[in-house]
Design goal:
8 helices, about 40% helix, two-stranded antiparallel sheet, alpha/beta, Arc Repressor Mutant, subunit A, homodimer, Rossmann fold, seven-stranded mixed sheet, about 15% strand, DNA-binding, elongated
DNA sequence: TAAAAATTGTAAGAAATTTTTCAAATGTTG
DNA sequence: CAACATTTGAAAAATTTCTTACAATTTTTA
């Protein structure tokens, strides 16, 4: 359980519930009906409707028997839960293939995320453009973080410099590290670390393909 | 629990355990000592040593009191568990920013994954090179899948064509879909689907930053 | 309007996972 | 070599998460 201070509702979410709530959010975004039943969400996501109802029961929302849940309300609750209504300015460190792809990613807007800068150490890359953004040297980091009130940084540098970059970011006031490097990073307590190592996904696939169906 | 047929050991893994085992694998890859204790693994990954021991107890390996676990053996067990010793030829569909970045990703080799082709529909892109690979039209799909015995395909196309591409891939004999599109995909039973939607990671960050630390 | 059907909400029970505890084994030190 | 410290391994307890079961509510239909 993740505890939460403010009142209103219990506001404690089992971690697995939180993961599923993200899926509901993604699903509902593409839905253009007004109402949806737990049964339908369940079928689409291959889980049980009871599970869906239980998850949703954590939110400040209530469904209508025989009709289902009001999708805009559900989306509203989930937006609030995930802080989507507040736009976060984020920065990307590392303008290689992954960093550039991330900088151009179209999906950020609808979840309240805006990439305000991309950094690199390589003087060949500095000054070139990735989409609309000019690649900046790390010496501009402090200025940008202050100016745009950046709390989140994505790390897209090679494994060997990931820790170094992390330390620098934390020093400059970054509060959350979104790590795309295949490295185990260390952060001071109070700093959030989210690992996005893509090899994990394919390890699951390989495991399942070989060991099961 | 994920059940498994072949004997030797119980070979059933709680899903959370499996996730942590991947982390151990990543951690141990960068380690060059001979032995490591549950305590050290735990400290690095910010979990408890008991948890680590319990996880490792699922494997066909046993630690030495006062010394710890033999790292090469542990790596060997984990490699086998995740099928890393067997190389999988995978293909990428979608030669945009993300697809290209993925095709150039260096980390695949050490987990037994090789990208053998990248596809796109856009005639502007077909024939251009991404690293060493020429972008191919989807009409070449069948040939490549057969020729390289491809079981896994990564989907890096826009949301709106993701389902269509999925259907095509399944039809051509692909057994596992690694989905990078921000879409809820449907696959026939027996086909594995692994979602890698990167927005999920940052939703977690936004939630935690606002609601807690 | 009353009965029927569909759907939510929740409490209780079951299952899965994590934490606690502690005995057994193996090095290490005096 | 004996006492001690460290570390594993495994059983038991506690906690968390999921499933089951069913009552309550609302719409539909006759």
């Amino acid at each position: 359980m993740l505890k939460n201070h403010i009142g209103r509702k219990p506001l404690m979410f089992p971690k697995p519930t939180l993961e599923r709530l993200k899926l509901y959010y993604a699903l509902l975004l593409t839905e253009n009906k007004d109402y949806i039943s737990s049964d339908e969400i369940a079928k689409r996501l291959k889980i049980t409707p009871e599970q869906v109802r239980k998850d949703i029961s954590h939110l400040n929302i209530t469904g209508k028997p025989k009709v289902g849940y009001h999708i805009p309300s559900l989306l509203g609750e989930l937006s609030e839960l995930f802080g989507i209504s507040v736009t976060d300015n984020i920065i990307i460190v590392g303008a290689g293939g992954l960093g550039s792809a991330l900088a151009r990613y179209k999906g950020f807007e609808k979840i309240g995320v805006k990439v305000v800068a991309i950094f690199d150490n390589d003087s060949e890359k500095i000054g070139t453009f990735v989409g609309e953004l000019m690649v900046l040297p790390l010496s501009d980091l402090q200025r940008v973080v202050k100016r745009f009130k950046v709390r989140i940084a994505a790390i897209c540098v090679p494994e060997e410099s990931a820790q170094e970059v992390t330390d620098l970011l934390v020093e400059k006031g970054i509060k959350a590290i979104w790590n795309f490097a295949p490295a185990i990073l260390h952060v001071p307590s109070g700093i959030l670390l989210e690992n996005e190592d893509i090899t994990r996904g394919i390890l699951s696939i390989k495991h399942m393909l070989d060991k099961k169906g």
